[in-house]
Amino acid sequence: MRTILLILVLLMPSVGVAVQVVDLMPRKGMTLRTLVITPESPKAAVILFLGGSGRAKITKAGRVKSKNFLVRSRNLFVKNGLAAIVPDAPSDHYNSDGMKGWFRETKEHTADLKALIKFARDRFKVPVWLVGTSRGTNSVANGGTKIF
After folding, report:
1. Are 121 and 131 in contact (CB under 8 A)?
2. What are 18-22's contacts with CB under 8 Å, separation 24+?
3. What is the CB neighbour count within 10 angstroms for residue 80?
4. Cβ contacts of residue 70 below 8 Å, gap of 6+?
5. DSSP E strands: which ranges in 52-147?
6. Calpha distance 54→38 (Å, rounded)
7. For a surface tag, which of 35, 74, 86, 95 has the fewest beta carbons within 10 Å of its beta carbon?
C-alpha cells in the first residue's frame, strides 16, 4: 500500500500548484491546446515537447493521455520551481499521424512556437526553456534557431 501511495504522490501536483488548460490560437483557424502547471513562484518556465506525433491528448479537464516520459515528468519540473507547459499537437495536425517530422520545421510550426513562448513570457515574466524528447527535439531546434 505504501508503494501505491508514494507513486500517487509523485504524480499529483503539490499543494499551491495551479493547473489550467489554455487553448491558444497562434494561426488563423486552428487551436493549440496547452496544459499549464504553475508552482507558487516559478523561477523559469519549461515548454515540454513530446516526440512522435506530438499528441499529448490533453482533455478539457487537464488530463494527459499520452504515456510519453517527458510529459509524465511534468510535475517533477513543477516540484523544482518551474512552470511546466505541455502543448498538444495543433488542431490542423491532430489527425492519427499528428505532427510529422517535416511539419516541425515549417513556418506554421514556428508560428506555434512563437505563440507558446510569448504566452510563457507574458504570463510568468521568467526565462523560458524549450525541452524535447525524440522528435520533440526538432521543435526545440526550430525554436532555438528561428526564434531565440
Report:
1. no
2. 19/62, 20/62, 21/58, 21/59, 21/60, 21/61, 21/62, 22/119
3. 12
4. 48, 49, 50, 51, 131, 132, 133, 136
5. 82-87, 128-132
6. 22
7. 95
> Position 66: which residue type?
S
Please tell me the distance from the alpha carbon of residue 89 to that of residue 86, in angstroms, as a whole number. 10
Q: Which residue has the cell 524549450?
A: 130
Catalogue the E-assigned strands of 53-113.
82-87
The strand ranges marked E within 1-148 are 18-24, 32-38, 44-49, 82-87, 128-132
In 3-state terms, what secondary structure has residue 44?
strand
* CATH H-level, domain 18-146: superfamily: Alpha/Beta hydrolase fold, catalytic domain (3.40.50.1820)
What predicted TM-score, i.e. pTM, was given to this entire model? 0.88
